[in-house]
Design a protein that fits this description.
The chain has a domain of 110 residues. Helices cover 53% and strands 0% of the residues. It has seven helices and no strands. α3 crosses α5 and α6 packs antiparallel against α7. It starts with 21 loop residues before the first helix and ends with a helix.
């Protein structure tokens, strides 16, 4: 007689566990909307955020994420000032920091006023994160310094944004050095 029973199930009860993480849900939804084919394009650029692709010039985050980052940075700036009873105190949020570090060089996402607060925020950074941001800023400076100089009148929008990115990288490197 054979040593197994018909219909016997293993430890997992014979069923495969399904990945129920947020990324899997998004991927499943995109595949379902696309009738099981290749996933649709991600309009927000979340794939670039996950992969760390910082060269996504055509994608821009939603206005609500920009507003959340602005609120986070303003609460950081006012963290030592007295606040009302209903106003929560500032707390570090890793996800917000990652978002800010990802988009801080983009002048069309982080405006000039908000970038000044970002510089204050960066001054308070410590340890490995500070070293990594400094290294990234120096890398941006090296890459963009190689680009050819174009007269201001003849610059395209892309060239103007790259010039602003270079200036911001210089400022970040100066503060963190």
């Amino acid at each position: 007689m054979v040593g197994f029973q018909i219909g016997a199930k293993g430890k997992m009860g014979g069923k495969r566990r399904r990945n129920t993480g947020e990324a899997a849900k998004k991927r499943f939804k995109l595949e379902k909307e696309n009738d099981g084919g290749a996933p649709k394009e991600d309009p927000v650029g979340e794939k670039a955020a996950v992969t760390g692709n910082h060269n996504d010039t055509e994608n821009k985050p939603p206005a609500e994420l920009i507003q959340e980052a602005k609120y986070y940075l303003e609460s950081y700036r006012n963290r030592d000032k007295p606040r009302t009873a209903d106003e929560p105190e500032w707390r570090f949020k890793k996800a917000k920091q990652v978002w800010i570090l990802r988009w801080m060089y983009r002048a069309d996402v982080v405006n000039k006023a908000l970038f000044t607060i970002v510089l204050e925020y960066l001054e308070g950074m410590q340890g490995t994160a500070r070293e990594r941001v400094l290294r990234d800023a120096q890398q941006v400076v090296e890459e963009l310094s190689k680009l050819e100089k174009v007269d201001e009148k003849d610059q395209t929008l892309q060239q103007k944004l790259e010039r602003r990115k270079l200036k911001r990288a210089f400022q970040v490197a100066k503060i963190l050095a």
